[in-house]
Design brief:
- With 263 residues, the chain is an all-alpha fold.
- The protein has one domain.
- The chain is built from 9 helices and no strands.
Length: 263
């Protein structure tokens, strides 16, 4: 036990000491401990929340949902603009883009939007709490919980070690997709009379899958060429994206294709 604890402390010290010195002072970045605690608390909430709500009435959160989703649309649009504008002004390459660790204006601007993207993943854990309070337990799927929890951890590593470079492509695409997604959620929160205008829900899942395919192509290319960007990061993104394509593809099949066959 003492040996295992010593190993954990050693790994933690290594992670703390070998990150991007520009981002170390920023909220939740320097040490992995706060992020790990957040993820553990999130998983406890997923387990305990439905049990605590079992004999309670669902809570009407419409007055919260509309401004929350509107704020998430605004944040997503802002991040998409910052990723796009900064990469454009910096002449980023889609084929190979190393991280610029200098503290000049454009690299710092890119690092800041990477941090906002990481922090947005922490905020998005609220989506799960909203499902629990509204007793939408059918939404608490493995896909939902896995995706929300792992994105926080994945982007902690990104902001800690690779705040820029190839990372911008994933953040830019995902911000665009989430601006559409939270627009859908915001319209749905207005009330049942809006549902007739939300016929495009299945296309939202298609958009998410298309995003993953683009990320897979982008990452695959960077695994095949010589590029001064951490190979382990590209490998992790590649494998993670394949897993998400499988999960989202299965969700699309069960939610739309199988139901059409039944009809």
């Amino acid at each position: 036990m003492a040996s295992a604890w010593k190993t954990i402390l050693s790994v933690n010290q290594y992670l703390e000491d070998n990150g991007d010195k520009r981002t170390d002072p920023w909220l939740l970045v320097y040490s992995p401990i706060p992020v790990v605690v957040i993820i553990i608390m999130y998983l406890i909430m997923v387990w305990a929340g439905p049990r605590l709500m079992k004999h309670r009435d669902p809570i009407d959160l419409r007055k919260v949902l509309i401004p929350y989703n509107l704020a998430m649309v605004g944040l997503s649009v802002y991040m998409f603009h910052e990723f796009l504008a900064t990469s454009w002004l910096s002449n980023y390459s889609l084929r190979c883009q190393p991280v610029d660790y200098s503290d000049t204006p454009l690299p710092m601007r890119m690092a800041r939007v990477c941090w906002w993207f990481f922090f947005s993943k922490v905020i998005e854990l609220s989506d799960t709490l909203i499902f629990i309070l509204r007793k939408k337990n059918n939404q608490l799927t493995f896909l939902h919980v896995f995706h929300h929890a792992t994105m926080v951890l994945n982007w902690w590593f990104a902001i800690k070690y690779t705040a820029g470079g190839q990372s911008f492509f994933v953040g830019m695409l995902n911000s665009l997709v989430h601006s559409v997604m939270y627009t859908y959620y915001g319209l749905a929160a207005i009330g049942p009379h809006m549902h007739k205008y939300l016929w495009w829900k299945s296309y939202l899942t298609c958009l998410q899958l298309f995003q993953f395919v683009l990320v897979l192509i982008h990452t695959s290319y960077n695994l095949l060429v010589q590029c001064d960007f951490p190979v382990i990061t590209n490998v992790a993104v590649f494998l993670y994206t394949i897993f998400l394509i499988i999960l989202f593809g299965n969700f699309y099949r069960r939610s739309y294709l199988d139901k059409r066959k039944q009809k």
